[in-house]
Amino acid sequence: MLDDLQEQACWLLLVFESGLTIRIVNDILVLWCKQLGRTLQDFFAADAQEWSTTCHLKPDIIQKLALAKEKLVAQSFLVEQLQHEHIHLISVLNPAYPSLLKSSLGRSHIPPVLFFMGDLELLARQTIAIIGSRNAGESSLAFTRMVAQYLSQQGANVISGNARGVDRTAYEGATSTSDGYTTLVLPHGIHKLSKTQMRDLQPRIEAGNVLLLSQFHPDAQWVVSRAMERNHVVTGLAQVVIVAESDSKGGTWEGANGALKQGRRVYVRQSDDVTLLPGNGLLLEKGCHPLAWPTSTIADMLAPVLYESNLVCEKQQVASPLPDQLSLLTVANQE
User: Fold this and answer.
1) Residue 176 sits in the same domain as residue 297
2) Cα-atom radius of gyration of the chain, to the nearest Å?
3) In 3-state terms, what secondary structure has residue 25?
4) What angle do CA 261, 183, 145 make, to 5 degrees?
5) Could you give the 3-state DSSP secondary structure of residue 290?
6) Is residue 158 within 8 Å of 173, Cβ to Cβ?
7) Closest to 181 in 3D by CA, of 128, 231, 240
8) Which residues lie below 8 Å from residue 133, measured CB to CB, with a gap of 6+?
């Protein structure tokens, strides 16, 4: 989290108002913040010549940065508004930035900042993502609800993407008991939650049971591309991923395959009738692990999931801290 409000405003300029890609933004962070140890206030106080010689930026990028610089006052007002609303900003430079997420994504996908409401320490728990179709069938939704409820009863943090269908059901299952924990990763800006949903979320956030996360500008609308980007964060934050229902294409399919590329162990709901869940069958053929459903004993079905999640969680807790918070980006920068 950035304590200096003016520094936060500069982060908003670089990440959201410049129009630069995540990869270029992260390159600037490596060169300016890591190697030189300078702030983004220093960066936006510099002139075009220094941007060119220090960060090796092309003229079109410099022009975008100069235009972004003109929006500093507006972003300063936004930062003050976020502070009033108890919406926090954490940068990739911060030691509290989720290490599992950083290690999962390349420099073209690591969100330079995350906005959040709630207790970030929920990510230190066992974190298990449940993903699935927005138009999932009743059997898949029943599976999702029972799985999320059981996992939350075991103290796990259930992660989902805050869409209708499986995501919404995972949230409902995880919060069906008073001590359930869940993280919602938004496919849009944090300001774009409806008033109805915020009324439901607010007391759970204040009680420490719900963590709300967004990698997008607070006022960013929902679009398909943002939903797909969000999927990388859902699986990147999780130690284990469960697929409730997937087609052979679309967001859940891409999310599950992305989780495999991230090195996650992926568990897939297995049905006797493979025609009902074509994507699930294909994922099992790729080597994902089956969860037979219906089941007479949900504890037995989910025992391997909790075991695997706990192993990863323990490794996170005993791992030596990184010498610096951009070391992974620096390695990538030298490729």
Assistant:
1) yes
2) 20
3) helix
4) 90
5) strand
6) yes
7) 128
8) 140, 165, 166, 244, 245, 246, 247, 250, 252
Torsion of CA 122, 115, 158, 278, to 10 degrees: -160
CA–CA distance, 69 with 141 (Å, rounded to integer): 47
75 and 139 housed in the same domain: no
Residue-number span of the structural domain to which 26 is assigned: 5-115
Same domain, 148 and 183: yes
- What pLDDT is attached to residue 333? 40
In 3D space, the residue among 119, 74, 93, 110 whose CA is nearest the CA of residue 3 turns out to be 93
Strand pairing of 113-117 and 88-91?
antiparallel
Contact by Cβ (8 Å): 19, 68 = yes
- pLDDT tens readout for residues 233-288: 999 999 999 999 999 999 999 999 999 999 999 999 998 766 678 899 999 999 99
Whole-number Å distance between alpha carbons of 209 and 155? 11
Q: Is residue 15 part of a domain?
A: yes
**Does residue 162 form part of some domain?**
yes
